[in-house]
Amino acid sequence: MREAEPVVRVEGAYEVAPDLLVIPDRRVQLVPNVGLIGGEEAVLVVETGMGPENAAEVLRFAAEYARGRRLYLTTTHFHPEHAFGARVFAGAATYLANRAQAEDQKVKGPGYLEMFREFGPLVARHLDGVELTAPDVVYDHSYDLDLGGRVVRLRPTGRAHSKGDQVVTVPDAGVMFTGDLVEARQFAIFPWFPPHDTDVSGLRWLVVLERLADERPGIVVPGHGEVGGPGLLADVRDYLRLLRDETWARRDSAMGEETIAEEVHAVMLARHPEWEGREWIEKGVRCLCAEHGAGHA
Ligand SMILES: [Zn+2]
Fold first, then answer.
1. Where are the beta strands (DSSP E) in the chain?
2. Where are the domains of the chain?
3. Ligand 1 mean position, distance from CA 180 (Å)
């Protein structure tokens, strides 16, 4: 992996809707889009950035923006750049998350901390001092958070990019935070790391995206990449569908996995020559090979 320093730059924050800010990722790897959603009485922060230094900066910025309003925190899923700064918010914000995500953090968090430390010295430095922390509030089905004059909906999607993905929507503003279920101008991130982590499901992910795309939110904040409209959801849905179809057509003809990965890689590059994250195509193919047949059942 090419290494860039994974730093959240709060000075880039801008309003995508009234009292609703995004701190953009500037297309830097391992920096997520961070959200601040304000109501009359409280502000919800979405994502912490990776490690205590980023989280402290996000918290400082959020506290200043809140001007005395109460703070809440949620994260879209447990991956390090999204959630491994939550400890810094303890005492300053109430941390809410869905049960499957809380489980992911507990079960997978320590392994991901070790794995990400291997990515390079800059990433490792940002992971120094990370303490994994359980959410203050864990909910089961869905959670409507009243910020005062504005209700934010937290909804788990079921297993897709991870076991515990959660989508955050702001109905009055037509805004949806998708976490890594959606990236802009990037091949879908398949954290397919057998035997350590095989929770990602291309098939379930596709079903989730079909559902989310049907909702047609006006503004979509992806996990990584530029904020966009409902077209972002359609792009990922179409990509996942094509990835499945191209992979399975070859699998049906009993082609070997290496050859399938090579051929599908070429098909996808031809379709999306401008997209980044090419290393994720092969992982997606391998995940869908493992899921081959499940759709016929
Ligand atoms: Zn992720």
1. 14-17, 20-23, 34-38, 42-46, 70-74, 94-98, 137-139, 143-146, 151-156, 166-170, 175-183, 219-224
2. 10-230
3. 5
Torsion angle (degrees, nearest 10) of CA 177, 181, 183, 189: 150
> 217: CA distance to ligand 1 center in Å?
21
Ligand 1: centre distance to CA 97 (Å)? 15
pLDDT, tens digit, 9 for 90 and up, residues 84-97:
999 999 999 999 99
Would you tell me how many other CB atoms lie within 10 Å of the CB of residue 224?
25
Q: Name the helix (H) or strand (E) containing 101.
A: helix 99-117
> How many whole angstroms separate alpha carbon 293 and alpha carbon 11?
48
152-207 pLDDT, tens digit each: 999 999 999 999 999 999 999 999 999 999 999 999 999 999 988 999 999 999 99
Instruction: Copy the structure tokens of residue 2.
Output: 């090419």
221 CA from centroid of ligand 1 (Å): 14
CATH architecture of the domain with range 10-230: 4-Layer Sandwich (3.60)
Instruction: Write down the pTM of the prediction.
Output: 0.96
Q: How far is CA 262 from the centre of its chain?
A: 27
CA distance 120 to 125: 9
